[in-house]
Fold:
Amino acid sequence: MPVLLDPEDTETKALHDYVDFSGKRVLEIGCGDGRLTWRYADRAAHIVAIDPKAEDIEIAVEECPAELRDKIEFRAARLAELDLPAEKFDLALLSWSL
Amino acid sequence: MVHALEKIQQLLRPNGILLDIHPTNEPAALAVRLIEQIIPAGWVNESDDYVEYEWADEALQRVVDSERFAVERVGTFEFVWHADSMNDLRAYLAEEWKDAIIDDVTAMRVEELLKLPVPDKEILVSEAIRIARYRRM
Structure:
């Protein structure tokens, strides 16, 4: 058996206990391979998910469920170099990344 | 880190939410579960990341002090990894957490516990994770 991360889903429960993602425009910083993204994406309106590691972003793009592809935009980028309009997001998620 | 939070402030709409999740600066606890009994075995040691988590906390405090964000709620939860063997755990750490160290005494203790004739057993690594919600001012 490979290493299993949080099969108890405590992280997902905490995430949804702290924030209602419904209809939100989300910026996820440090999304890695999308491990956390999949746990809330179904509720969000639109997600820009960034990570500086291009190989992790490639995995996230490959593993992105078909029904989420229209609403998640993965980018291999650092926050500082992100060129997006001001006040674009309702919610910013720092995913183990500050 | 403060620059990153300033950038986030620009990108969030007024009253937008910042949710921060990161481990606390407590080392991850290593234990072995034998059926329902959990036996502590030691710690996963690492230094750089824990210093960075302290810096992250300081940066968050600074943007709160400067009234860019307001703290709404802070808590912690336990994030647990499960592994069947030290080899599996070491392979995972080599891939995902390269600076982590499990000292020889701890590794031997885990191996000894896993050799006990118990049908249901596994290694548990528990990290304390800080979760905090902030409101953009």
The mean pLDDT of chain B is 93. The helical segments of chain B are 2-11, 48-65, 86-96, 104-115. The interface with chain A takes residues 1, 3-5, 7-8, 10-14, 16-23, 56, 59-60, 73, 75, 77-84, 88-89, 92, 129, 131, 133 of chain B (CB under 8 Å).
